[in-house]
Amino acid sequence: MKIKDAKKPSFPWFGMDIGGTLVKLAYFEPIDIIAEEEQEEVESLKSIRKYLTSNVAYGSTGIRDVHLELKDLILFGRKGNLHFIRFPTHDLPTFIQMGRNKNFSTLHTVLCATGGGAYKFEEDFRTVGSLVASSLTLIDRVCILIV
């Protein structure tokens, strides 16, 4: 699988669908990291990558669907694995707090979320997660800009 090169966004690469009962998270884990990139990688990014890829269960309700993982995917010219994680929507505030605790907002990245929960939890992303939300109505998604 290959998606054409475009401007390569900073890592981590996430996407979320926040539904009424379930949050679905897609995470791209680069596997073609060169030594120079690894040295430049900030501790918070290493912490997030290790947490998401070394577990199959997160807390009592989060699950990484290993059987759905896409290996050796080429995305924006980077080779990596695409992971799928799901957890109940009622646990989203805990997820946002975990992101804050892992200093996710220091990474200057974009997190896009679809679904009604993207709007419902927009204020939580802003206040708890220290994120700025930008609504894109074209495809009914909200991009959470981490500044």
Automatic annotation (TrEMBL):
One of its GO terms (cellular component) is cytosol. It is found in: Cytoplasm. It catalyses: (R)-pantothenate + ATP = (R)-4'-phosphopantothenate + ADP + H(+). One of its GO terms (biological process) is coenzyme A biosynthetic process. Keywords: ATP-binding, Coenzyme A biosynthesis, Cytoplasm, Kinase, Nucleotide-binding, Transferase. The keyword Cytoplasm applies. The keyword Transmembrane helix does not apply. It comes from the Eukaryota. Pfam families: Fumble (PF03630). Its main location: cytoplasm. Pathway: Cofactor biosynthesis; coenzyme A biosynthesis; CoA from (R)-pantothenate: step 1/5. Gene3D superfamilies: 3.30.420.510. One of its GO terms (molecular function) is pantothenate kinase activity. Its EC number is 2.7.1.33. Belongs to the type II pantothenate kinase family. Homodimer. PANTHER family: PANTOTHENATE KINASE, PANTOTHENATE KINASE 3. This is pantothenate kinase. It comes from Micrurus spixii.
